[in-house]
Amino acid sequence: MDIENIIAQVEEEIKAADSLERLEEFRLRYLGRKGILAQLTATIPSMPQEERASFGQKVNSLKNKLNLLIEGQKKLIQSDKRDSEVSYYDIGMPGVAQEIGHLHPLTQVNDEICRIFNRIGFSIVEGPEIESEYNNFTGLNIPLEHPSREAFDTFYLKDYPKMLLRSHTSPVQVRAMKKHKPPLAIIVPGKVYRPDAVDASHSFMFHQVEGFMVDKGIRFSDLKGILELFARTVFGDDIKMRFRPHFFPFTEPSAEVDISCIICKGKGCSVCGRKGWLEILGAGMIHPNVFKEVGIDPKKYNGFAFGMGVERIAMLKYGINDIRLFFENDLRFLKQF
Ligand code: DAH
């Protein structure tokens, strides 16, 4: 078989190879160790000297051409195969379901708290987590050398000595009262920081919601009514509430507020430490010194303030006994909410 004939023939043959198996048969027939090209090459030594070189070149270029044609046909067969697979794709088959997530339980509880107060006219205001020492302490009537400061101790910024991570959301009282004139009804959600060792009830970072109202003639009973509405909405209508005298530097009088234990209904159990009551927040009437710091006349205006921990409310609401569960992001925990 001479070379010119082969070239004319191969294109047709390759196009006729409609499967990878037939293409491979073709390849072996031409390019295999005992294939046609090998046979042609074997004839070279017996040729007249002057024909050898040009014949050798022709065989080589044929070999290259065949390789190219085979590769091209191979791609064609493979893509045809893919097309036919695609056309068998059954659009009636059920799809792969995407997992749908939901808000973190703390976000849910935080939003619920804010919604309750928002509905009765409180605006939502946020403040920075990096705060001045003044807003976190002095502006709130917590003198720098006063022992009560220890309760609100926090992390200081190494290169900015008068700046810290806020240890409560109360500094936003100072910011908001300096910026806006009364009447004010404000709620402040946000993260706070304390240098506490982590255990089942402590975390170096947690969430608070602060609330305060400033106007003429605000009474302690206004505070009681609003907090009772809040507690009943979150924990149910059958809870009881009590105000226990307490000390906070930024309120006078001050109280810690308890609800009757939602587990034992006040009889005493392990959750409430046999007391029948659970502490949910701190509150009081805004101290005149705080008003003076922010430039509001305490003879004309007064108001109340309160602050609560979101983790604590969520733990009580859902019966969660370890604060660390909120931050471990274990889906077995999170999926329950
Ligand atoms: N800032 C207090 C704390 O972190 C909570 C608090 C108590 C806020 C009484 C108040 C308040 O506004 O009146 O423990």
Jot down its keywords.
337 residues; binds 3,4-dihydroxyphenylalanine
Structural class, from secondary structure content? alpha+beta
**Chain-averaged pLDDT:** 92
Strand content: 15-25%
How would the global form be characterised?
elongated
User: How many individual helices?
Assistant: 12
Strand order of the largest sheet: 1-5-6-10-9-8-7
What is the terminal-to-terminal distance?
A: 81 Å
Q: Low-confidence segments, ≥5 residues, pLDDT <50?
A: none
Specify the helix fraction band.
40-55%
Rg measurement, Å: 40 Å
- Ligands, ions, cofactors: 3,4-dihydroxyphenylalanine
Largest sheet: 7 strands, mixed
Number of strands: 10
Order of helices and strands: HHHHHEEHEEHEEHEEEHEHHH
Brief rundown of the structure:
The chain has 337 residues and is α+β, with helices and mostly antiparallel strands.
Describe the structure.
The protein starts with a helix and ends with a helix. Helix 1 runs parallel beside helix 4 and helix 5 (105-119) crosses helix 10 (310-318). The relative contact order is 0.10. The chain is built from 12 helices and 10 strands. The strands form 2 sheets. A 7-stranded mixed beta sheet has the order 1-5-6-10-9-8-7, sandwiched between helices. The protein has a 3-stranded antiparallel beta sheet with strand order 2-4-3. It is of the alpha+beta class and 337 residues long. The site of 3,4-dihydroxyphenylalanine (DAH) has 11 residues, from strand 9 and strand 10.
